[in-house]
Amino acid sequence: MSEQTKVWVVGHKNPDTDSICSALAYAELKNRKEAGKYVAKRAGAVSSETQYALDYFGVQAPELVTDAGAQVKDIEIRKTEGVDHSISMKHAWELMKNLNVATLPIVTDENKLEGLIVTSDIATSYMDVYDNHMLAKAKTPYKNIVEIMEGKLLNGDVDACFETGKVTVASGDVEVMKEYISAGDFVILANRTEAQKYALELNAGCMLICAGTEVSDEVLALAKEKNCVIISTPFDTFTAARLINQSMPIACFMKKENLITFRLEDYVEDVKEEMAKVRHRNFPVLDEKGFYVGMISRSSLLNMKKKQLILVDHNEKGQTVDGIDGADVVEIIDHHRIADLETSGPIYFRNQPLGCTGTIVYQMYREQGEEITKKEAGLMLSAILSDTLMFRSPTCTPVDKAAAEELAKIANVDIETHAKNMFRAGSDFASKTTEEIFFQDFKKFNAAGKDFGVGQISAMGAEELDSIKGDIIAYMDTVLEEKKLNMVFMMLTDILEETTYMVCAGEGADQVMEAGYHEKKTNDSYTLKGVVSRKKQVIPVFMTAIQ
C-alpha distances in angstroms, 371 versus 20, 28, 59, 381, 407? Predict the structure, then answer.
């Protein structure tokens, strides 16, 4: 199954352990019925806590995706084969007619795009070329001339090119020929042997003998002596003169500067904007290494196949991967409030008031009678322990705890030991930048026209949180500006003490805290005892206070 036809199973931006582990476990469940169709992805960096869980159970982190919008590779690309720059204009025209295309790509032997030729270029070669030296300037291969004239090469090298002189028709008296034939010229003649011999004496570079005329041995011998190419054609002189320019190589007329090309990874929205600026009908597509792939046109965009996504652990547009409007959401598995994400049609939407998406995925394994392996049990267990803070969060339900206990048996781990090791890994801040720490679990929300963000940093004790508190506060103004937020809040959560120290920035942020929790700021933060859940104890309070 191609990558383009696979369904992404993806969690929210700045993913936590639940978001990544549930995506992996659910993709595996879906693949039990349709092998290889579903693939887990992630919309942000893997936190240290999550990485510990993945490493412990020997699971590779999902591939990072930053945009779910349709890309050029999702469009039906017309596989118009590239042609060599030496083919004749007539050959190019015939190819266009046979393929029903208006543009031909010219490529090198390595399949790198060299240029483009369009129907108007061919019209130019027929109608606007008055220079009788053009055949030489174009370095026209003799094989092209033989092809166009449906003729035979009687003397000379078919792989050589006509490179000097002009094109002339020897239609007058022999005595007059010397007035317009110069050395190296391409001379079109009929069946007069005397004229043929005289053209050779004038050192013609090539003679095109028309009307299927037999060329005498004497003329051939003189041509060899003079190094003159001789081609015979069944066409009459008029027809030959009319067709000769069609033998010129397309390299002479192709467009090779400022070509508008697209890459397979380019997003359709960007492609549309670029196409709107020009009147071209067709555009070449290149792969990541710059090799030619095929052609697309404006009409190609009408038949594009959008990416299909299953969202886990979120259903809010501001939290999902960029470009969601250009994708088809086919399922949502979540345990948060129902927010503002719209779909183009009815979908499977499972939303339960549980402490973790991993618990819902566990239920679905059981409902479908599917075996849970040690690896999958470890993923779902890690998700539950992380989201419920080892059952300390008020979002935790008896269903979550029962699921975790069952999964721990399958995964053969001790719940408390595994949870503490995960949390310690997550609170190892020494090797991380302030930005990495700040966004390891950060979500955006909107209420009453106000955009605000809420992050959460958890640790096993207050000392670890104090070590980063100052840097987090200093970084908040940068977050406000870069993320274009009105307010930003960060929960510094002491897991063992079940206490959050809230720091905030932005106009109105302090008023929201005071109105929501009736607490006063102490030492740059608000102490919220018993508050550990963003979903249940913070977001509802903020929504009410802001509205």
Answer: 20, 11, 18, 15, 12
End-to-end CA distance of the chain: 48
Q: Looking at the structure, tell me whether residues 422 and 319 fall in a common domain.
A: yes
Amino acid at 285: V
Specify the CATH number for the domain of residue 523.
Answer: 3.10.310.20
Structure-token pair, residue 215? 């060329």
Please tell me whether residues 243 and 259 are part of one structural domain. Answer: no
Q: Are 316 and 43 in contact (CB under 8 A)?
A: no
In Å, how far are 4, 326, 449, 462, 492 from 497, measured between CA atoms? 48, 44, 35, 8, 12
- The number of distinct structural domains making up the chain is 4
pLDDT tens sequence for the chain (547 residues): 566 689 999 999 989 999 999 999 999 999 999 999 999 999 999 999 999 999 999 999 999 999 998 889 888 899 999 999 999 999 999 999 999 998 999 999 999 999 999 888 777 766 656 678 889 988 999 999 999 999 999 999 999 999 989 999 987 677 778 888 899 999 999 888 888 998 999 999 999 999 988 899 999 999 999 999 999 999 999 999 889 988 999 988 889 888 999 999 999 888 988 888 887 888 999 999 999 999 998 888 877 788 999 999 999 998 999 999 889 999 999 999 998 888 888 999 999 999 999 999 999 999 999 999 999 999 999 999 999 999 999 999 999 999 999 999 999 999 999 999 999 898 888 888 999 999 988 999 999 999 999 999 999 888 899 999 999 999 999 999 999 999 999 999 999 899 999 999 999 999 999 999 999 999 899 999 999 999 899 999 999 999 8
Is residue 129 domain-resident? no
* The token pair that represents 10 in the structure block: 């993806």
- Report DSSP state, residue 164: S
Other CB atoms closer than 10 Å to residue 239's CB: what's the count? 14
Q: Domain check: are 118 and 265 in the same one?
A: yes
One domain, residues 12 and 44: yes
Q: Looking up tokens 């192709």, which residue turns up? A: 254
285: CATH: 3.10.580.10
Please give the model's pTM, rounded to 2 decimal places.
0.69
Domain boundary among 426, 451, 470: 426
- Residue 60 is classified by DSSP as P
Give the residue numbers spanning the domain of 329: 3-69+307-426
The answer on 295 and 319 residing in a single domain is: no
Last residue of a domain, one of 396, 426, 456: 426
CATH number for the domain that contains residue 148:
3.40.1390.20
The first and second tokens of residue 488, run together, are 């930003």
For strands 152-155 and 308-312, give the pairing: unpaired
- Three state DSSP letters for 184-217: CCEEEECCCHHHHHHHHHCCCCEEEECCCCCCCH
Task: Report which residue type is found at 462.
Answer: A
Reported in sequence order, the residue ranges of 61-164 that DSSP labels E, i.e. its strands, are 63-64, 103-107, 113-118, 140-141, 152-155, 161-162
Which residues lie closer than 8 Å to 268 by C-beta, 6 or more apart?
69, 70, 71, 72, 74, 75, 301, 304, 326
Distance CA 48, CA 423 (A): 9
